[in-house]
Design goal:
DNA-binding, alpha+beta
Length: 269
DNA sequence: ATATGCACCTGTGTGC
DNA sequence: TGCACACAGGTGCATA
């Protein structure tokens, strides 16, 4: 489910928790991709939530103690705000009871997500992720540097969180369609104008996707339970065999390093 | 450096 | 209707 646009949408929808205190923590299933921090409850109960930030696909809830709750939504995770008395739902793994009658629930059917508490500096996963593709750091100069000497495919490169943080399978495909570049192209063979097109396309696609509230392919919801609408605007992702919205040619699906890639053989070179 | 295969999980859709 | 199978937004490992 969640790539940068979905995580950013969740972040924005969670802003109403700012200033609330964590009153109780209920860990029902600690076995996520990594075990939920054993001291999650002891380090968060009594703390006030003072920040809701995003770093790539990670969400960071800043606490008044200077600790941070680090969350990753994996493939199927959601962080959702409900009324305090709302009934437990399937796959509700951790619940933070908040002041002023709300409960923040980490729900994740596949349990590929992550929920930890600690100092920001202590999280190794944050140390090795690249710049945010919406920041000024993500420029044609940077992408040019990243692509030199690398034989790997441009799509694979865009999805490498160490190089750029937040792009996953849906948006890598969409960005490359928008840029007119085939996903299988080797990074080092890209021309400068193509690099520039990819940088522009990245901004356009991610900004549009955030504006639409992300993509709800099956079950993604934001923190207030609302779906996104960008799936209706997808150009190639999950559209194998359907006509390209721009030229009518059939969209193709190929497998690259274990993931499905989609492209229009006419619009993308 | 990079690709592949697999592992971790559950849910859904498809074809028989 | 039931069953087997493929596949799904992510990441990390071991192996080539």
């Amino acid at each position: 489910m969640p790539e940068l646009p979905e995580v950013e949408t969740v972040r924005r929808s969670l802003l109403p928790i700012l200033g609330r205190r964590i009153v109780a923590v209920d860990i029902r299933e600690p076995r996520l991709r990594r075990r939920v921090s054993r001291d999650l409850a002891s380090r968060t109960v009594g703390q006030q939530i003072v920040a809701v930030d995003r770093c790539g696909k990670y969400l960071l809830l800043g606490l008044s103690s200077a600790d941070v709750v680090l969350a990753h939504l994996g493939m199927s995770g959601t962080l959702i705000l409900r009324p305090a008395g709302a009934p437990l739902e399937p796959h509700d793994h951790v619940r933070f009871l908040l002041s002023r009658g709300r409960v923040l629930v980490f729900n994740d059917p596949r349990r590929f997500g992550l929920l930890r508490v600690g100092r920001t500096e202590s999280f190794a996963e944050l140390r090795c992720i690249g710049p945010d593709p919406l920041s000024q750091d993500f420029s044609a100069e940077l992408l040019l540097r990243l692509t030199r000497q690398r034989r790997r495919s441009v799509k694979n490169l865009l999805m490498d969180q160490r190089l750029v943080a937040g792009i996953g399978n849906i948006y890598a495909n969409e960005i490359l369609f928008e840029a007119g570049v085939r996903p299988g192209r080797r990074a080092q063979r890209l021309r400068r104008f193509e690099i520039e097109a990819i940088v522009r396309a990245t901004r356009r696609v991610l900004v549009a996707a955030i504006a639409a509230g992300g993509s709800s392919i099956s079950d993604y919801r934001d923190g207030s339970g609302r779906p996104g609408y960008f799936q209706l605007a997808l150009s190639v992702y999950d559209r194998a065999g359907l006509p390209c919205r721009r030229c009518g040619t059939e969209v193709r699906r190929v497998t690259q390093t274990g993931r499905s890639s989609f492209y229009c053989p006419h619009c993308q070179r």
